Amino acid sequence: MTINGQVVDIACFIGHGTNGAKHAKCAETCARAGNPLAIYDAAAGQVYIPVSMNHKNPNEKLMPFIEKKVKVTGTLLEKSGVKGIAIEQVVAQ
User: Fold this and answer.
1) Quick check: 85 and 74 in contact, CB under 8 A?
2) Neighbour-count burial of 22, counting CB atoms closer than 10 A to its CB (0-12 exposed, 13-18 middle, 19+ buried)
3) pLDDT grade, residue 21 (50/70/90)?
């Protein structure tokens, strides 16, 4: 599966609707504190949570792209209404 979207931190994105370039420093701080990152596909109105299948930090592949547009490829995972992606590759757009 391929997702085109923006890397956001869940705490601020869901908690108070904050995202975008002006929010990048805060999002990085939140991610380093342990808050999960996600990919927001605005066209689909969908948030995808990165899922690590190798016991590594799921934020790791997204950290260089915080609050930037990306193209993410990987395997779609879905359960109980939550959509995730086991990331294979992340490329800046």
Assistant:
1) yes
2) exposed
3) confident
The dihedral of CA 58, 60, 61, 62: what is its sign?
positive
> Model pTM?
0.93
Cβ(65)–Cβ(92) below 8 Å: yes
CA distances from 48 to 61, 63, 76 (A): 14, 15, 9
Structure tokens at 44: 């689909």
Distance CA 8, CA 62 (A): 9
Buried b (16+ CB within 10 A) or exposed e, 41-58: beeeeebbebbeeeeeeb
| 60, 61, 62, 65 alpha-carbon torsion, rounded to 10° | 120
